[in-house]
Design goal:
- The protein has seven helices and nine strands.
- By secondary structure, the chain is an alpha/beta fold.
- It has a single domain, classed as Vaccinia Virus protein VP39 (Rossmann fold, 3-Layer(aba) Sandwich).
- The longest helix is centred in the middle third of the chain and has 14 residues.
- The chain is globular, with a radius of gyration of 19 Å.
Length: 255
């Protein structure tokens, strides 16, 4: 495939949200409004991941054109990458072949909620740029936790505020004023739009992100970059979330 045909394919498959760097030096979105995105995000996160991921199974939720999927595959992981947008999946399939990574990657058209219908598990779950677009974010986190048997990389749009209020295990019904304290875990609901996007529904504060992750069964939570967290699946997770999912999705299968 020569430079001209690659350029033509890039144009044909556009517009691109991921600026992929292809082997011949071509880029899919060199004039991206966010800069060299998401390369600079990967550089922030990659030091917290194993250099050698051979033998590991990874899940990329909302893979878009596949930038993170490809970086994980380059480290040796076998990656399942899902998205609901056929346009992005077409880009990702073409790019995987261009990069010679297609044998390590399975692309699926799927929502995060559909993951509840499988009992497949992954050593690493990549869950970035999705939560705040979902109408049911805590359900999604519960489902993702059931898929994760190791580490998760998580990102969401957040509301301002660095404080973390030291919440107690229980409060009386008439103690609700404590919820107005700075650093109480909160999540703002966006009825209309942010950045002209009608699917931007939620913006948790920093405390809220941590509280939601703990509630879904994650531990060892660290914020490693702006709005980016790494955490581990809590192996002592109670059966509450599992029972809830089995009630809602009784036909879960081993795929």
């Amino acid at each position: 495939m020569n430079n001209t045909s690659i350029s033509q394919q890039i144009e044909k498959l556009g517009p691109w949200f991921h600026n992929l760097h292809l082997p011949d030096g071509e880029q899919t979105a060199p004039n991206h409004f966010l800069g060299d995105f998401p390369s600079y995000k990967w550089r922030e996160i990659s030091p917290f991941l194993p250099e050698d991921m051979r033998g590991m199974r990874a899940l990329d939720i909302g893979c878009n054109a596949g930038y993170y999927t490809f970086e994980l595959a380059k480290r040796g992981a076998d990656v399942t990458a899902i998205d609901i947008d056929d346009h992005y999946l077409q880009q990702a399939l073409w790019a995987a072949e261009t990069l010679g990574l297609q044998r390590q990657i399975e692309f699926r058209r799927s929502t995060v909620y559909q993951l509840a219908q499988t009992k497949e598990t992954y050593d690493l779950v990549w869950f970035m740029g999705v939560l705040y677009h979902l109408r049911h974010p805590l359900l999604a986190l519960d489902i993702v936790r059931q898929c994760c048997k190791g580490q998760m990389v998580f990102q969401t749009m957040t509301a301002p505020g660095e404080e973390v209020f030291p919440t107690q295990a229980n409060y009386g019904l008439h103690q609700r004023e404590v919820m107005n304290e700075p650093g109480w875990p909160t999540m703002a609901f966006i009825e209309h739009r942010v950045a002209d996007d009608p699917t931007n529904w939620w913006a948790p504060n920093h405390a809220g992100v941590q509280a939601m992750l703990r509630s879904a069964g994650f531990t060892g939570i660290q914020r490693i970059a702006h709005e980016v967290y790494v955490c581990e699946a809590d192996q002592n997770l109670s059966g509450f979330a599992v029972d809830e999912l089995n009630t809602i999705f009784p036909q879960r299968t081993e795929n």
